[in-house]
User: Fold this.
Amino acid sequence: MGKNDGHQNEYEIIEVLNKKKIDKLPNHFKKWIQKLFQVDKGTLYVNKLNNEQKADIVLKVGEVNKYISIKSGNSNSFHSEQINTFIPFLREIGISESTLKTIVFFHYGDNTLDGSGPIRFTSNDLRKTHSKWFKLASDELSQDNIMKHVIERFITKGRYKANFTINGIYHGTKDDGFFLPTKLIYQILLRKKHVWKNGTINFKMLSYQPGSRNLWGIPGSEQKRNNSEIKWRSFKKDALNEIKFSK
Assistant:
């Protein structure tokens, strides 16, 4: 699903859930919502949240609120922000200057640290010549003490202190899907063996990429060069395996 399709999916889910009796919901919603609120019955109220939140919707039963992120499709994008706020965040949580420079070098892909180079290279080009740099950076970025900060920023809460922490992620549509509690998100991403190896920049299973390197210098796409993006490409597979394992 694309960006607009994702928003449409959220509104369709809201329509199915809002002002409905929990025990009358379809099973792919009812089971996890009952477990989440620890009730079998009651009326569910649902509202859309603003785009600054990692939670897309808030569910309410009585006086209790639960905050849910919604994903669909494959190769899910989880986070985006300008590189001029992304790098200071990493510096604040203890990432070394050498790794920060490697990230910026990879981000712009033009052999500079400010995006001013005349020739821009693809990720495939860069991994052929600088894979050792990227591995060293990824090893540092994947340490548990770093990942705990990263997970909160990229997945469970976001950039702003006032944001709500999500209670979990619903992956799917109004017709079918599954729910991954926040606790299991941490279990997946902190597991030692879970490391994404694609030869570029990774935070364990999370992969880093620029919004665009704009290889051909298209004017309308140039602003995307400053975006940092985080993807969890194997999210659906990892989540379903963890749910099965946790049972």
Observations:
- The chain is about 40% helix and 20% strand.
